[in-house]
Specification:
By secondary structure, the chain is mainly α. The chain has four helices and no strands.
Length: 74
């Protein structure tokens, strides 16, 4: 995100599923590949989110589009 903001001078968008910050969520029976995708990195996600919130400015997506001239205000 930093490179996009700094070099390309554009906003970046990311999405985080609410379950991605719940390291204590119940572990479901599933294929190993699904379990790997679902549970790997859960313990780090909250810390990474806190770092993003501290290091970057955030806005609503509609405001970003308005500021870029892609939408007109209502």
């Amino acid at each position: 995100m930093g490179r996009i903001n700094r070099v390309e001078e554009r906003p970046a968008v990311f999405y985080l599923h609410p379950w991605e910050i719940d390291a204590t969520q119940p572990r479901l029976k599933a294929a190993w590949k699904s379990r790997f995708r679902q549970y790997t990195g859960l313990r780090k996600t909250q810390r990474l989110l806190e770092r993003l919130l501290a290091d970057f400015r955030f806005s609503r997506l509609d405001q970003i589009f308005l500021d870029a001239g892609f939408m007109s205000g209502r």
